Amino acid sequence: MVAKRIIPCLDIRDGQVVKGINFLGVKEVGDAVEMGRRYSQEGADELVFLDITATFEGRKTFAQLVEKIALNINIPFTVGGGISTLEDASRLLDAGADKISINSSAIANPQLISDIAAKYGSQFVVVAIDAKNIDGTWMATTHGGRNLTDRELFTWAREAQDRGAGEILFTSMDHDGTKAGYACETYAALSEILSIPVIASGGAGNVQHIVDVLSKGKADAALAASIFHYGEIAIPDLKAQLAEAGINVRK
Question: How far out from the chain centre does Cα 154 lie?
């Protein structure tokens, strides 16, 4: 059985890690490089760095920051934000990122998924989907949740897979930052229709929430931010409790 992954997510704004609730009320919580180094040392399986304002402000993800991160950690990390061309992806992978994550640009230009996968391989391409539940239907958004699209979560995730995505990172905007638990039923349904890994994001507040999304939710990885950033759950303790709950995790 493939081990489940624990992935701290570091939302980046101007080189600093920030966190909000439902994508709003964003506050700074620390330095991106220093926090990345700490999580690497504590036993995180991977890291995700997302420049949360790059797409909205029309900026490119800061490649120099990626270079610094690569020099300071020894686990795989994914970078996203403002990646709209194959050249953008190349620049970040060349800077040391192990994977790139595309969201708004993938919806605007689905061919971008295919282009990156064709050049580098599906394992380098994570398609992130930020979606909210509207009258019972999960609809994807773009630009950090600011713009609602006509893309339905399950249909879009399947298309992304068909175009070459190696993983789907689905964030429930309704659960993000609330610490009230993940949208487990939705993750389970998504995992059933896809053959690629699903990373769950949005709602982690305690160990049981992570147990639930990795078991009932059938997610391949649990991504969280607040509980790690504010020291509410130490990664070694989390992994020990997950193992006690019968979930296969890396030591």
Answer: 17
Question: Which residue among 45, 51, 130, 176 is the active-site one?
Answer: 130
Q: Which residues on adjacent β-strands are paired with residue 12?
A: 17, 51
Query: What would the two tokens of residue 83 be?
Result: 């990646």
Q: Which residues pair with 140 in a beta bridge?
A: 131
Length of the chain: 251
What pLDDT is stored for residue 54 in this prediction? 66
Q: For residues 235 and 208, give the distance between their C-alpha atoms in angstroms, rounded to a whole number.
A: 14
More confident residue, 216 or 24: 216
Q: Would you give the DSSP letter of residue 40? A: H
Q: Match 């950033």 to its residue by tokens.
A: 229
Show the tokens assigned to 201: 């994001």
Q: Tell me the domains of the chain and their CATH numbers.
A: 5-244 (3.20.20.70)
Rounded Cα distance, 227 and 206, in Å: 7
Q: Round to whole Å and give the CA distance between 120 and 117.
A: 5
70: nearest Cα among 40, 97, 106: 97
Please say if 98 is a catalytic residue: no
Active site residue 11: yes
Query: Region 208-216: what's the mean pLDDT?
Result: 97
Parallel, antiparallel, or unpaired for β 24-31 and 16-21? Answer: antiparallel
Q: Does residue 196 register a pLDDT over 90? A: yes
